Amino acid sequence: MKKDNLKDQYRVNEKIRVREVRLVGDNVEQGVYPLAEAQKIAREQGLDLVEISPNADPPVCRVTDYQKFIYQQKKRQKEQKAKSVKIVVKEIRFGPQTDDHDYNFKLKHAKSFLEDGAKVKAYVFFKGRSILFKEQGEVLLLRFADDLEDYAKVEQMPALEGKKMIIMLAPKKMPVAKPVTLEKVKEVKPAKEPEKDLKENE
What we know:
The protein is of the alpha/beta class. The protein is about 30% helix and about 25% strand. Strand 5, helix 3 (about 100-115) and strand 6 form a beta-alpha-beta unit.
């Protein structure tokens, strides 16, 4: 349900076209009323008749202030959106012949990403004739998943997509809020040369 068409989601007053309705709301005697009588009750209170459950038999209508009702619906949507968990996917790129130092560096990053609740999309990128080493790339990704067994579950086994062989990993545990420390900041830099292949896509 989008905010743009929220008003179109509910029929109100004269737009309601049924024979009778079940009336609810403050300061009204709940029950089934002919539509005209329900509309009259709403008008006498200076309020609107809003159809809130069109599929019920008979449809349920609330006597309420329509503008206030729409405002509350938007507020509820906003709160639900704020509560929903945003899934972050981090990418880690390997070459078909990645050395141990590079591998361990990226393994360390993957553990950190997974502990923070992010998914990890690891892939081996094949340039030109290196596609001949696709089996080697698959072995590398399976080793990667095995080394992360305590942190992640495999969502997608290694699969070749164009020039990339991709594996998807999801965290096993929900993230726990942790304060950022100087030690943590220092950890994100490699001990030796900068790693060009590591990507972090928010």
